[in-house]
Design goal:
It comes from Amaricoccus macauensis. It is globular, with a radius of gyration of 21 Å. With about 350 residues, the protein is an alpha/beta fold.
Length: about 350
């Protein structure tokens, strides 16, 4: 594995490497070069950390047959485009762009490098050499919501959120709907920090939510700062993307874990075999791309049982958290009884369920 800093990569530039067609075992003579770009630091212990564990799993699986590199702290926008271009110039034949805001830069660069395969996480634009992949994070949010509905004494959950894009909106809604199945009066208060990773802003948002009456906290940001704020207040919270219990052993009830390693191994193997094809993958608890971290021992046994029923029901398809009736913040029925939101609708979700204060 090689670590490349964003600054070093941008300075280096690099001459364009000769490209090989993706047919047969084109890469048998030398190791396949695979790159990953991350929006945050690998030490965020959240979303980027989870992708880094996936990269390490893939590197260990392929050994000397593959050389992986990563660039961390890549800003979404022009920086991402430059980093992607330089990674392609450096001879990488498969590049994983692991944040929603990398979508447009990935599309631009992929057009210039038709012999390089690109995989974009959480996006929706595909091309002959661009595939997309995503995890059903909302399934884990529903498990957390079930716990919150049982354990919140105030009936108010806090939510530290990054950006109002569909994957975040559906998580807020899933958390709220699951909590309301336990406590119909449950409310979710949201504070937006306009960042995926900003520990100071995340901590301030958590404190503000606690001051507004929330006694249990979820987050769609990547640092453990909200959990640490909960620990300091003697309150409760859920980790993001990985087990964060070491930062808040009392407050941390469980966490949504994102496991990317299996997907990375599968897609790298496809490039080696010359069978890589574009497509879109959206996997969750059923496929083991989403898991729940161990339950905190402070969760009562009956609540663990309810959480496991929500987890297992979503995995086997018997529970669909977005089944009707569902009304929005304005009281308008969005999903009638007997219906459920389909995947295309979820992937464009831009409204909040009743009980969300955003």
């Amino acid at each position: 594995m090689t670590l490349i800093t964003r600054r070093g990569l941008l300075k280096a530039g690099g001459a364009a490497a000769a490209t090989l067609p993706f047919a047969g075992r084109a890469f048998a003579a030398e190791p396949l070069k695979v790159a990953f770009i991350y929006v945050g630091p690998v030490g965020d212990f959240g979303f980027t950390f989870a992708h880094e564990q996936g990269r390490k799993e893939a590197q260990a699986h392929f050994g000397e047959n593959v050389v992986t590199t990563y660039v961390e702290n890549v800003a979404e926008g022009p920086d991402a485009e430059r980093v992607l271009k330089n990674l392609a110039d450096d001879g990488n034949k498969l590049i994983f762009a692991t944040s929603f805001g990398f979508m447009n830069p990935t599309v631009k660069v992929a057009k210039r490098y038709p012999d390089v395969m690109f995989e974009h996480c959480t996006g929706y634009q595909t091309a002959a050499n661009i595939a997309t992949y995503n995890a059903r994070f909302y399934e884990g949010r529903a498990v957390c919501g079930t716990i919150a509905g049982h354990m919140s004494k105030t009936g108010i959950g806090g939510y530290v959120a990054s950006f109002p894009i569909p994957e975040v909106v559906m998580g807020i809604n899933a958390f709220t709907l699951a909590a309301q199945k336990v406590n119909p009066a449950f409310q979710t208060k949201v504070v937006w920090v306009s960042s995926w990773y900003d520990p100071a802003k995340e901590a301030d948002a958590a404190k503000a939510l606690f001051d507004q009456g929330a006694d249990i906290l979820s987050q769609h940001t990547d640092s453990p700062a909200p959990l640490q704020a909960a620990e300091q207040r003697g309150l409760m919270a859920f980790g993001q993307a990985w087990d964060m219990s070491s930062f808040a052993p009392k407050a941390h009830l469980t966490a949504i874990e994102n496991h990317w390693g299996g997907y990375y191994i599968e897609r790298i193997q496809a490039v080696i075999d010359g069978t890589w094809k574009t497509g879109s993958v959206w996997a969750g608890l059923k496929e083991d791309m989403v898991r729940m971290a161990p339950w905190n021992e402070r969760i009562p046994p009956e609540v663990v049982k309810a959480a496991e029923a929500m987890r297992d029901g979503q995995a086997d398809g018997s529970v669909k958290i977005f089944s009707g009736p569902i009304v929005d913040q304005n009281g308008t029925e969005k999903v009638p009884l007997g219906s459920a939101l389909d995947d295309p609708t979820l992937l464009a979700l831009d409204w909040y369920v009743a009980g969300v204060q955003s």
